[in-house]
Write a structure and sequence with these properties.
With 93 residues, the protein is mainly α. The chain is built from 4 helices and no strands.
Length: 93
């Protein structure tokens, strides 16, 4: 995640919106148990932590893909063959 975006995420005064989320009762009960075990104030705080953790991981992966796409485009402009690029990409995956 880029530094500017990370700094923005850490600000306490960001605008907040409320949403409604429908979950099975047994899932809510499990969330309450895990929240207590992990010493969260309540299960909603745990849900926010889970969402934040997953979102950061997915954004990092997306950012990496975008950087790779930019690199591939640059290599093609410089005359690197598709075959060479494909081999290189397969090696890093």
């Amino acid at each position: 995640m880029k530094i500017a975006k990370l700094k923005q995420r850490l600000q306490k005064d960001r605008p907040i919106t409320s949403i409604e989320l429908r979950l099975p009762e047994d899932v809510v009960e499990d969330l309450k148990q895990v929240a207590a075990m992990r010493e969260f104030l309540d299960y909603r705080a745990l849900m926010q932590a889970y969402i934040g953790q997953g979102l950061r991981a997915d954004l990092e992966q997306l950012e990496g893909r975008l950087q790779i796409a930019d690199l591939v485009a640059s290599l093609k402009r410089q005359g690197v063959t598709d075959e060479t690029i494909s081999v290189a990409l397969s090696e890093i995956q």
